[in-house]
Amino acid sequence: MKTERDLLLELFQAAVTAADPAICLPPHLPDLIVGNAQNHTLGRTLGRTVVLGAGKAAASMAKAVEDTWSDRNITGLVATRYGHAVPTNYIEVVQAAHPVPDAAGQAAAARMLAMAENLSADDLLVVLISGGGSSLLTLPSAGLSLADKQAVNQALLRSGAPIDQMNVVRKHLSAIKGGGLAAAAAPARVVSLLISDVPGDDPSIIASGPTVADPSTFSQARQILTRYDIAPPEAVRLHLERGEVETPKPGAAAFARCETVLVATPAQSIAAAATKAQAAGYDVVLLGDDLEGEARELGSAHGELALATQKQGRRVALLSGGETTVTVRGNGRGGRNVEYLAGLALSLGGARGISAIACDTDGIDGTEDNAGAVVLPDSLARAAAEGLDPGTLLAKNDAYRLFQVLGDLVISGPTLTNVNDFRAILIDAR
Q: Are 296 and 259 within one domain?
C-alpha cells in the first residue's frame, strides 16, 4: 500500500523529471540541431558551431545537445559541479567546485572566454546555462584573485542574502558574468538555452547572466555588501569603489545577435507534480514557484497554513518552489530544505494527517549529501524518543542531524538538473 512518504517522493521525482535536459532541451534546440524549423528557428550558419556552458546541469545539457545534433559538427566546453559529469563525445566536460569556486572553475572559464573571443560573424555559439553557473564560471576581474572571489562568496553564502543580490556582487567581480561572455563572442550569433533555478526566471540572474545584459551597477554591489555587513578583501573594496569597467547594459551592441530561451522552469516542474497529486486524489493549491525568505520562517508559516487548511475537511496538497535563504549562526550541518522542514515540524506540533517534503531538485541541499528530507506526523515524537530537541538543533543550524537520526533524509544523488527547491505538504483531514 502506498504511503504518504511514497507519494511525497513521487511528487519530487515528477518535478525533477520535468526538468531533465534529455526531455526539456531537445524541443527548444535551434532548427540546425534538430531539423525542426518550427521550434525556435534561428537560421543556418556557414561557420563553426561551438557549445559552451556552466551549471549543475551543464554536462547533461551537453549530452542532450550531442544526442540530437544532426551532423556532429560541434565542439565545445562546459563546466559542472564535481560529481555531476556525464560522458560526452564532442563537448568537453570539466568538473569544478560549487558553491565556493576553485582553480579548476577559473581555468575552465578562462578557456571559454578565449574560445568565445575567437568566433566570427559566421559562427554560432550555443550557451548552456543552469543553476550553479555563478560559482563554476569564476574568472576574476583584472586586479582580483581567486582568493578574493572565494572570500566574498563564502561571506555572501553565510549572510542570508537572496540569490539576486548575491549575483549583483558576483557580476561586478567577474570578467565573464554579467554579459561578459556575450560581449566576447560578438559578432557571432549567440543562442543561450537556460534551465532556471531563480525566483522569477530572470535570465540576468541565472548563473549571473553571462550572455545577457546586466541592469545592475557597481553602486548596488557596494550597497549589498554594506547591507549584509560584509567587509570584503581590500582589492575587492577598491575594485567596487573605482567601478572602472561596468557590465554591458541593455541595448548594448554586444547583444544584437543574442537570443535566450528558457527550456525548464520551476513552474513547469511544480505543474508536473501537481498533475500527479491530483491523480492521487488531492486538491492542489499552488503557493508559488518563487518563494524566498528565511527557510525556517517560511516553514513555520507553511505549518500554520497547513493546520488552517486541514480544518476545511479536504485532502489538499500545498505545492511551492523558490529559493529560501539561511542565515548561518551556528556550526551545525544542513541546508535550506532541512531548515524549512524543521521549522515546519515545530509549527505543526505533531499534527496528525500532515506530511511534507522539501528537496533541492539538483539533489544537493546546500553542501550536504542529501536533497532534502521528509516530515511525517510522528517526526517530533520520534525525535523526542531519540533525545533530540529540534528547536535547539535548528538554533545551531544543525537540522541535518535531526533528519539523519530519524532516517528521513532524502538522498537522491546528483539529478543532473536544477530548477531550485521543491516543496509539498500533503493534508488529509481524515
A: no
Residues 394 and 286 in one domain: yes
Above 90 in pLDDT, residue 318?
A: yes
Q: What is the pLDDT of residue 34?
A: 41
- Rounded Cα gap, residues 192 and 51, in angstroms: 10
- Please check whether residue 399 lies inside any domain of the structure: yes
Q: Would strands 372-375 and 354-360 be described as parallel, antiparallel, or unpaired?
A: antiparallel
- The gap from C-alpha 373 to its chain's centroid, in whole angstroms, comes to 18
Does residue 17 sit within a domain?
no
**Residue 379 domain-assigned?**
yes
The residue segments making up the domain with residue 100 are 45-264
Give yes or no: residues 138 and 226 share one domain: yes
pLDDT score at 66? 93
pTM of the predicted protein model: 0.92
Residues 108 and 66 reside in one and the same domain: yes
> So what's the pLDDT on residue 40?
36
User: Is 5 part of any domain?
Assistant: no
Tell me the sheet residues that pair with 95: 80
Positive or negative: CA dihedral 206, 62, 28, 52 = positive
Calculate the alpha carbon distances from 315 to 86, 299, 354, 425 in Å.
41, 20, 10, 11
